Each structure stands twice: as structure tokens, then as C-alpha cells.
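User: Show me sequence and structure for the first protein, then do the same for the second.

Assistant: Starting with the first protein.
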Amino acid sequence: MPNAEVSIDPPGRRARTDAAGRFRFDSLDAGQYTLRARRLGFSPAEWSVDLSKNGRLDIPLILGARIAQLDTVFISDGRPCDPQTYEGFLCRRATTRGRFIDFSDIDTMSVLYSAEILRDINGFKIATRSTRIGPTRVVEPTRCTIVLVNGVPAAFVTVPESPFDIIGVEVYQNAKEIPAEYRRYTWGKESCWLVAYWTANFLRPIARQSIPKP
């Protein structure tokens, strides 16, 4: 099965299978690891392995066909969706306006950098910048844009570079589209857009950085 995403935790590395369906992780320490695999159109799966020192394991991973089912149905009583959980992302996708991109959409894009997820949305330019570890792709919005990561105010530079680490993106380019639970971030900036990212580690809170006093 080509082009399937395989991850190993720890240390949180990612790989994609080649044309023959093969993948490989090198330079791992002895210990227990969890392998996860997913591909659009198939049910994701997970395996636990125990690697010995200087050991090698050949593991065949088999994904089952995805069972056809209806998407999650949300019934709203007028209250806002949860602003800091992935369930809130699913709730807003079903009940509000805006542009929603989930991990299956990202897999279909076959992008190398998370910045490229916004490449087809008008108002966002993707540029290449040089860093100490080589060139990378960054987002350059054409107007004021508020960024959230896992429900917390952030910046585009704090968004994980790898698209494998992104499981959902919300884009609101109109003040009327921004849901009630996020409007407080636009006070005094009503003309700004808002982009909210959800990452694979959304269960762990984003570290807040304090600004040193002059």
C-alpha cells in the first residue's frame, strides 16, 4: 500500500510508505514503541512493539477497509462549541461557516510543509525562507490574521512544520464567520482573519511564553 503514513512514538517520527508499501525507521534505542498507520479510505490501526538492543524487527502492517458511516452529527442548543478541544473543531465544522480542513484532506494534498495547507485559499501566500537547518516554507497572509494553536493564541512560526502533525485547520476570512467562542480574540481587530490549527498533540497544553520586562 503506497503513500500510507506511519508514525512511531516515542520519538514522534513519521514516514510514508514507498511505491511497494515499505517503510523504515532507523537508529532507535531498545524499548517499547507504538506504531500507527493511516491512509485515506482505510481504517487507521496501531501496533505495539518491543525492540531489543541492536535488534531489528520486520513488521507487516495491515489496514482494514474503512466502514462506510455517517459523519458525527452535532445537535446545538445555541451554546458555543468548545474552544480548546478537537471535539470543538468537529462541532464548528458541522454548525458554523468557514473553511475546514481535516487530516484526510491534508493527506490528499500530499504537501511537504504545513504552510502549504493554505496554498489554495485566496489571501494566503506561501514563501520560502532560509533557516539554520535549511530552507522552509512559511505562510504570508495578505492582511491581519489571528492564529490559534490548539485553542491558544500563537503565531504562524509556532505551527509545527510537518503536515503530519496537523489534524485540523479552521479558516475564517470574514468577521461574521468567526464563531462566538473565538470573537474575544478579535476585539479591536474586527477586520482580522482567524486561522485555528489543531495538532496531533492537542491533548498536551501549549506552553505559554512570558514576555520579559525591559
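Switching to the second protein now.
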Amino acid sequence: MEIIASSKQREAPREERRKRITSLTESIERSKSAGNAIIAEVKRSSPSGFKAEALNVDEYVRYVSEGGASGLSVLTEPKYFGGSYELLRHVSSLSGLPVLMKDFIVSRKQIDAGFALGADAVLLIVRILNDQELQDLYRYAESLGLEALVEVHDEKDVERALSLEPKLIGVNARDLFTLKVSREHQRRILELVPSRYIKVAESGIDSPKAIKELKEAGADAFLIGTALVKNRELLRELIRA
């Protein structure tokens, strides 16, 4: 996959790039004092059948940024989610919000790409990595100044994630293999994660009711894509829920 970066980004020393990183953790903490912390996802498609190829990215990012989102999530995986590195670069240039690079990250090269193109955090999915890979990629992201959202789905994932002592743990309601969403299962896994971690609920969140249920289970923030792309005005309701 071609990595598209401006000459300024290519030439900027690594330390200069580090100085421009915005903390997703700190943004979530600030948002919690005024409402619910929502990470708005820029999403054009998904394996579940969702399609939004005509999404006006500039308008969407401007709306959710001004509307109180805590951060932005950008899908860079092209085959299943219609994402790209160019999309990450563009979104990173549009907003001062922290940007999460969301992909099936399995190599340092992918993290380097995110770093160069403006990501402030990267997604690491526990179940697609062995212990050595997970440790290496987490520490490598950390060495660049990037935060990592460490995603779990079940009890075994939680045990492995906690060994990293990460700031951010994402709990995905969607099983990556069956694509089924279980809110009940997600709530149970959220309750297993100690409260000292920032817990981000992911997938299938589409209403204030869902937000309230997940908050009761311990969620600190909510990563939402499909529902917001379909109806960006829902953002304010979700923040107030």
C-alpha cells in the first residue's frame, strides 16, 4: 500500500512530529467533565454491509469537531472498510482533535505510517497478535509518543492486555470472526477491566440508551462510526446521555 505524505511531513524530524501529538487520553478525561466522551469515526464501509462512499469527510469532521467529539477515528484498511493512508493524512490536517489510526496493525511499518501521516494514537487488536508482537508494537508506538488503544473482546484478551498496563483499553462488542454484536457480552467484559484504565466501548452504539447501559458497566468513552455517519446530529444527544 502506498504511503502518501507531504514533503513537510517527510522532512520533519521525528522530535518535531512528536511535539505535535495530541493525547487522546487527556481529551477523553476533559470531555468526561462536561458530558460523554465520544470518538467519532470516519467510516465509508464495513463488512456488516454499511456503505457511505459519498461521505463528505470535510463536512463530517468539521461538524463532529465543533459538536464536542473527544477524538476522531480513521479507518485506513482499504479492502473491508474503504479506508486509506491518504484519508488519515487528510483528516489529521482538518482538526485539532486527537486522531486514532484504526487498522489491523501487525507491523512497525504500519505504525511508522500512522506517525508520519498525523495519527496521535493507533489501534492494537489483541486477538490478531501473539504476545511478543503485542508487546513489541505497543512499546514501539509508545517510543514514538503515540498512544495505543488496546482492543479486547473476551476474558483471555483482557488478561493479555492488562500485562501491558496501557492507558486505553477498547472493548469491542463485535466478534471479529462472526461479526455478531453482543451488548450483554460487552458489558460483562467492561466490568472485568479495572477502573484505573480508560475503557472505550466499541461497535454498534447507536442511541443514548446504549450509552447509559455501557456507562453503568464502566465505559469511560465510546467509539461510534456507523450511527454518526448516518446521522451526525445524533452526536449531541450521545454526549448528553
